[in-house]
Amino acid sequence: MLTLYSFPTPNGRKASILLEELGLPYTVHRVDLAAGENKRPDFLAVSPITKIPALAEELPGGRVRRLFGSGAILLHFAERTGRLLPEDEDERAEAMSWFMLGISDLGPTAIDMQRFAARSPDRIPHAIDLYKGELMRCYAALEERLGAAEHLAGASYSIADIACFPFIAAAAVAGGGLLERFPNLKRWHDTVAARPAVQRGMSVPDLAASG
Ligand SMILES: N[C@@H](CCC(=O)N[C@@H](CS)C(=O)NCC(=O)O)C(=O)O
Predict the structure, then answer these.
(1) Which positions fall inside the GST N-terminal domain (predicted)?
(2) Which residues of 8-23 are buried (b: 16+ CB within 10 A; e: fewer)?
(3) Does the domain at residues 89-195 carry the CATH identifier 3.10.310.30?
(4) CA of 111 to the centre of ligand 1 (A)
(5) Ligand 1, atom nearest to 12 Cα
(6) In the chain, at which residue ranges do the beta strands (DSSP E only) sit?
(7) Which of 16, 52, 100, 159 for mutating ligand 1's site (highest number of atoms within 8 Å of CB)?
(8) Is 89-195 the same fold as 2-82+198-202?
(9) What is the pLDDT at residue 202?
(10) Domain ranges of the chain
(11) Which residue's C-alpha comes closest to atom 3 of ligand 1?
(12) Of 31, 87, 120, 197, whose CB is crowded by the most CB atoms within 10 A?
C-alpha cells in the first residue's frame, strides 16, 4: 500500500498526477504546511527535508520504503513500471533533460520568485529581477521545444511533462497572460490539462483527505 504525503501545491501535484496516470492505488495524508505539520517527527521520518511530496510504501513483512521529493517519486515509478519514459534512446535523453529542467530549474525558480515577489517582508528588486529572468529562460526554452515536438520528450507523454505541468498550470492562473504570450506552451498546457488522470491528480489532496 502506498501513502502519499502531500498538500495542494505544484510539487505535491506532480506525485498525485503520476500515481493517477499509472493507476496505482494510494491513500493521501494531507500535511498542512501552513500549520507546520511538515515539522512533525512522524513526517520527518518520511521526508527528512520536511517538504512534501513524500511517499511511504508498505512492503511485505511490514518494512516501509520511503521516497521523498517529486523527482525521486516520478523516476522511481517510471522505472519500476516501465511507463512514462520513452524506450527510444533519443527520446529518453530529451525526456531526462526536460524532466530535470522541471525538477531543478522551473520548480525551484518559481518558488523562489514567489518568495521574493509576494512573501518577502522587504522588496528586493535585484532578487525579483533575477528570478523573473530565470523563469523567462525556462518559459522560452519550453516554448521553443513545444514548437518542435508534441510533448517534451517528443511524440510521447512522459514524466518530463508531469515534472513541468503543475508549475505552468499555476503560473497560467496567476495572471500575467503567460499562455497568451507563449502559444506552443498553451497548446501543450491545454492538451495535458485535458487528461483525466491529470485532472484527478491536480485535485489531490482535497479537503477531505486525512491529515
Ligand atoms: N525538491 C522538492 C521540493 C519540494 C518542495 O519545495 N515542497 C514544498 C511545497 S511545493 C514544501 O514542502 N515546502 C515546505 C517548506 O518549505 O517548509 C521536490 O521537487 O519535490
Answers:
(1) 1-85
(2) bbbbbbbbbbbbbbee
(3) no
(4) 9
(5) 10
(6) 2-6, 26-30, 54-58, 64-68
(7) 52
(8) no
(9) 98
(10) 2-82+198-202, 89-195
(11) 69
(12) 31
What pLDDT, on a 0 to 100 scale, did the predictor assign at position 118?
86
Given this model, what pLDDT does residue 151 score? 98
Report the DSSP beta bridge partners of residue 4.
Answer: 28, 55
Angstrom distance (rounded) from CA 178 to CA 199: 20
> Which atom of ligand 1 is nearest to 68's Cα?
20
pLDDT at 11: 98
* Topology (CATH) of 2-82+198-202: Glutaredoxin (3.40.30)
The string of DSSP codes covering 89-124 is HHHHHHHHHHHHIIIIIIHHHHHHHHIIIII-SS--
**Distance in Å, CA 70 to ligand 1 centroid:** 9
Q: Relative to the CA of 52, which ligand 1 atom is closest?
A: 12
| 126 grid coordinates | 535585484
Per-residue pLDDT of the chain (211 residues; tens, 9 = 90+): 999 999 999 999 999 999 999 999 999 999 999 999 999 999 999 999 999 999 999 999 999 999 999 999 999 999 999 999 999 999 999 999 999 999 999 999 999 999 998 888 888 899 999 999 999 999 999 999 999 999 999 999 999 999 999 999 999 999 889 999 999 999 999 999 999 999 999 999 985 555 5
Pocket of ligand 1 (CB under 6 A): 9-11, 33, 38, 50-53, 69-71, 103, 107, 111
